[in-house]
Write a structure and sequence with these properties.
Elements (H helix, E strand, L loop, with lengths): L12 H6 L15 H30 L5 H17 L6 H16 L3 H12 L3 H18 L5 H16 L6
Helix pairs in contact: 2-3, 2-4, 3-4, 3-7, 4-7, 5-6
C-alpha cells in the first residue's frame, strides 16, 4: 500500500535514504581564508574567555559563591566571539574551539584561589604550585561528584550555548 490514510500518496523515502545529499552552496568569497578565520575566531574567543574568567573569578572571590549561571553567559560570550571571528562560517572546528575556551574560562576561575590555599599552607608556591593549581582547577567542577550535579548541568548549558552558536550555517 503506497497511500497515507488521507488518500495522499506516501512520500518516496528511497530517494531521501539512498541518494547522496545535495552539494552545499559555496561560501561567499568575502569571508576570508581559513587561517584568517581561525586566528580571528581564536583571538576573539580568547578575549571573550578572559573577560568571562574575570567575571566568574570576580564573583567567586568577592562573594564566596560560585554562581553557575555565569557559565551560560560565558558560553554565550565566547560563542558569539568565535562566531564573529570566524566571520559567521561556523562548523565542527569552531564549535570545539568555543567549547574548549568556555570550559577553560570557567574551570580556571578557581585556580587563583587554589594557589592562594597552597601559598597559605606552604608560604611560597612557585611555578610548580601554579601549574598544579591550574591542573586541579580543570578537574574541580567534577571533584564534588553528585553533590555538584546542578552545577555541572549549568556548566553543560554554558558549553552547549558556545557549541550551538557556532553551527555551520551553509
Amino acid at each position: 500500500m503506497n497511500e497515507q490514510p488521507d488518500g495522499a500518496p506516501a512520500p518516496d523515502l528511497s530517494k531521501a535514504i539512498f541518494d547522496s545529499p545535495p552539494e552545499p552552496e559555496p561560501l561567499p568569497a568575502d569571508i576570508g581564508t581559513l587561517p584568517v578565520r581561525l586566528v580571528g575566531a581564536a583571538g576573539f574567543g580568547v578575549i571573550a574567555g578572559f573577560l568571562g574568567w574575570l567575571l566568574y573569578f570576580g564573583v567567586l572571590k568577592f562573594t564566596g559563591y560560585e554562581v553557575g549561571l555565569i557559565s551560560i553567559a560565558v558560553g554565550w560570550g565566547v560563542g558569539l566571539a568565535v562566531r564573529i571571528g570566524s566571520r559567521g562560517v561556523g562548523g565542527l572546528g569552531y564549535q570545539i574551539l568555543a567549547v574548549l575556551i568556555t570550559y577553560l574560562s570557567i574551570a580556571f576561575s578557581s585556580a587563583p584561589l587554589i594557589a592562594a590555599e597552597f601559598e597559605a599552607a606552604e608560604g611560597s608556591i612557585g611555578l610548580v604550585g601554579w601549574v598544579l593549581a591550574f591542573g586541579i582547577s580543570l578537574a574541580a567542577p567534577f571533584l564534588a561528584g553528585i553533590e555538584n550535579i546542578i552545577g555541572l548541568a549549568i556548566i553543560g548549558f554554558g558549553l552547549y550555548q558556545a557549541w550551538a552558536m557556532n553551527r555551520r550555517v551553509v
